[in-house]
What we know:
The complex is a heterodimer of chains A (240) and B (531). Chain A has 240 residues and is α/β, with parallel strands linked by helices. Helix content of chain A is 38%, strand content 27%. Chain A has helices at residues 43-50, 72-78, 94-104, 109-122, 138-150, 168-183, 195-201, 219-223, 228-238; strands at residues 2-12, 18-28, 32-37, 58-63, 66-67, 79-82, 156-160, 187-192, 204-209, 212-218. Chain A has a 6-stranded mixed sheet with strand order 6-7-8-3-9-10, with helices on both faces. A 4-stranded antiparallel sheet of chain A has the order 2-1-4-5, with helices on one face. In chain A, a hairpin with a 2-residue loop joins strand 4 and strand 5. The longest helix of chain B is centred in the N-terminal third of the chain and has 35 residues, at 108-142. Chain B has helices at 4-16, 19-24, 28-61, 67-91, 98-103, 108-142, 146-158, 161-179, 184-212, 218-232, 234-244, 248-281, 299-312, 315-321, 323-337, 340-348, 355-358, 362-370, 376-379, 387-392, 397-426, 431-458, 468-471, 475-502, 504-527. The A-B interface holds A 13-15, 48, 51-53, 72-77, 79, 81, 83, 87-92, 94-96, 99-110, 112-113, 116-117, 120, 126-132, 134-136 and B 26-28, 283-289, 291, 293-299, 302, 305-306, 309-310, 312-314, 384-386, 388-389, 391-396.
Amino acid sequence: MKVLEINNYTKDYGAGKKAADNVTLSVESGDIFGFIGHNGAGKSTTIRAVVGVLEFEEGEILVNGHSVKTEPIECKKDIAYIPDNPDLYEHLTGIQYLNFIADVFGIDAVEREKLIKEYADEFEITSALGDMISSYSHGMKQKVALISAFIHKPKLLVLDEPFVGLDPKASIVLKKMMKKLCEEGGAVFFSTHVLDVAQKLCNKIAIIKEGKIITTGNMDELLGDKSLEDVFMEVVENEK
Amino acid sequence: MKSRSLILLKNLLRSTSGINVLRYEKDSKKKNRVIGGYAGVFVLYAMLMAYCILTVIGYKQIGIAEASVVMCGVLISVTTFIFTFLKTNGYLFAFKDYDMLMALPFKPSEVAGTKFLYMYFKNLPWVISISLSMMIGYMITVKATFYVFMMWIILSLLLPVIPMIIASAIGALIAAAGSKFRHKQLIQIILTFAVIFLAFASRFIIESIFKENKVADVLTQMSATTGLISKYVVTVSWFNKAISETDILAALLLAVSSVLLFILVFSIVGRSYRKINSSLMAGTSKKNFKMTSQKKMSLINTIAYKEFKRFTGSTLYITNMGTGEVLTLIATIALLFVDPDVIIEGLTNGAPLTKAMLMPSIPFIIYFLVGMMPTTAASVSLEGKNWWIIKSLPINMKDVILGKVAFNMYLSLPFMVIATIVMSIRFRVGMISTILFLILGIALCGFSSLLGMVMNLAHPSFEWENEIDVIKKGASVGLYMLINMTLTCILVVAVVPLAGLIGSVNISCIMILFFALLDFICYKLIVNKKL
């Protein structure tokens, strides 16, 4: 079952050059899909359109069959999104922020308490939840953002560079949680620069360069007996 | 080599003026927002200039045209003092780029001094608007010489420096005092409100001095007021002497003392600048949270609660947007102890107005303070870099907007209701009129909240460097003030004769219907707006 379908998505900021050019890909239930590319390749522009933050004119993006353009609320109910640098509400405490997200998703009091405790304990951040987010380090903000993403049990987890700033244990916990979500029928679509992580974690990848998808498919089929690093360099060089 | 301060100043101005957006931005929406912002501010400048010119013409008609010089000095000094004081926290202290700047090879005094100069340049358009318009009015009415023209221009550029330094020094003291406490923000908010209250009360203090001297005549009182200001506010006195009496020494005193005071204050501030900022920006973490049972809230209330935390979490936000409510509270408490007739006489300079005549204006008098500046005029823009959170959540934008409107209603309504009840009791208003005033008060608070939101949705700004850019200088805030102040002033004055013609109860009913209609129009504009 297709959780995410991007068909001919194009984003032009008006500078003549397209930030995303005819991007087409699909993510199915159970997939951990890695979105790989250089800085400025168009990863964040695509991700921001998928989660409904960025308006776009050309192409279509569907989440569980719902159009991001015409049914944004339905799509967002199924999505959890964490940007590369999650600017959270600095004037709230960690627990207030998590309650805010839980209220928006209508999670009842008992359920949210259980889930927040579970995830906060896993990320070892429970004791800091009563402190202001402004006092948090980048990694702690990332952890709170991740808890807020998991507490409403999303069907599609969209992450932009999720491993930046996380400590080694938190990275392991996140990978475990991503796999668990996929086992339960969800899917993960994330961008990364870390090719080793992508190779170990993803079953599908897409490589984007200058706004265009230059290769996409199953990890095993794309790699053969090569490493992702070799494949990446090869396809990127061939596109010059 | 260029001075480092000059390089910093140039880049601060360049990054916040919107010039770069106009020159390099490809997105025409962003360009239009900057142009719209400038257009809104220019309308405010034009209104200020019109007010200044009319003031000078008014002075000419009552035979005190010479007082225009002192009044120009007072207006420039007071405006720049208040503007600077409200901006000190955020521009001079606890600003976003503090870490970046302090990591560069700048002396703390250079950073503090440059930030002050930056505030000076940001205040300059207001100073020039007041100065030029009053000078034009003065030159027409008094037929002044070229010397006056030159002196006026040069000295009015120097005139804001000392009031700004004093405002910055008070801001520095408040910041330093606040930084010593665990609840530093609360201390800063209380001290800031205390200074704002004193600034507003100063007018009544001056007037009370004349009351003791039994000065009743308006003309004599105004001449005496300007005389008193000239006597005690030394910078205004120098400005006045240099222009009215061609006193070059006074001009030199103003110039030299401005420069010397700047050097003195910023070398002192520079010494403890790092310490104050470090204390202000240090986040305290207790790390003792224990998971307890959580509560579920409705969507509108959860957005309103988030707004409440945003409001109380920022000294700048609370002191700029909460001033009207605090002044209402102070006025309400004062009314419990002071005879309303005394207040009317004080506010109207002894004009022949009675309690009964002013009675229909009660809701508008209260609204003048409560509706001064709603949080909604900046709350969307204040989302700034957090906008992704709202945008990526499965909620209708309408609910987000209504949550923000609800917060302003929760904030303003209690003040409106209490003040209306107290005023109604003190003015001996009947039961039916009091109930109508309360209904009108609710409609007015709704109008303020909704109009602020209409303006903010029309001119949102998410890419700001400093909160003050949207709280104090945002196009939406300026436009709200322009529309709301004009409408309120007209209504405060208009309802008095109208009530005489058709009766107080009838005029209250008409006003309720009028504002209910305005509320409905604003609501429709909001829910149909796409963000």
